Predict the structure.
Amino acid sequence: MTSPRSSTARRGAGHGGEAASWFSSGELAASRAYHVPLHRAALAVAGADLLVGLVVAAAAARWAGGHGGDDGWVVRSLLVGAALAGLRAPHRAAVEWWRETRHEPAHGDDAVGRGLVAATAVGSALARVASWAVLSVALVGLSRWTPAWPLIAGGVALAGLLAGSVAGPRFAAGWLDRARPLTDGALRRRIDGLAERAGLGPVAVLAGSGRLARTGEGAYVGGFGRARRLVVDAGLLAPGTPDDVVDAVVAHELAHWRLGHLRRGLAPPVLAVVVATALASAFGRLEPAELPMLDVVLRATGLALAPLVAARSRRAEHDADALAAGLVVDGPAAATGVRQLLLDARTELEPRGVGAWLAHYPPPAARLSRLAAGPTAQLGRARA
Ligand SMILES: [Zn+2]
């Protein structure tokens, strides 16, 4: 088996973006074996959720024939909402159990015990049933109070979304991600230097050891204005990590910031709320028996829009990569380090089929090639 690390060094920065030029055939096969069943499971869950919605819709419509009066709408809303979530609980819990127990503890992760997995699955199922029951009563009650109920519900959803986006990391990173301000002098100066080269002002940097910080890109930037925070995985900031890798991860997040992706990232959820509000308006005064059909309409719309949202995300990630490649000092070294990060994070190495349609990132090989291509050319392109 050829070591991709040595082939990287041998071929230099100019090699292509094919998966085989960055990953061994064994690594590609392991990634496929891990991700293809996950995609199938996700599709199966989405299909089963839709089916449950349709079945409950049919049952609720028949039931409404005998209980069509105005009385008891609270109880009927509670029952329909709980039935929707309750019938979805078994297959969701099964997939959750299957996914957690086949996930070997990755580098830096705590081993997850089966008891905790089961408790989490049961707990989240109960929480979903309760919250759907309450939400159903709230929606039906609101629609009985005013015909403008979709606008009010949409407005509340938008307000929550915006408040969370603007100030979320400022208030939530501490307890969600056990994030602490970064105090290490040299590391701090390195990140400040990157921010300066990206044309950004002072950055509030936190080191986080929670789940959000450890998954995905190894870092995230969130919030707006003075509430903006850059949260970096504390494991990544440990002394063993090469500087080039920290640079690459941080530069990518700073690039999102510099390119205004946080603001633009709000567009899909805002559009989703607007679409949901428009679709809900078609229901007029909402009857408890109509809740499942509203749920089916919204879910089907979400599924149909998912590939568009993913394509938009891929374009933003591509642009952030291009700008980040212009900020790192040693592109090839950074790419070699990031290659290992991608393997450790079990990233899908060669997305195909559904995986490619729903991928929120460009293919890893293309990303590594972009990073390895180095500063000058990429910075020129990012500015163009
Ligand atoms: Zn990104």
User: Anything to note?
Assistant: The longest helix spans residues 25-66. Residues 217, 252, 256, 317, 320 surround zinc ion (CB under 6 Å). The chain has 15 helices and four strands.
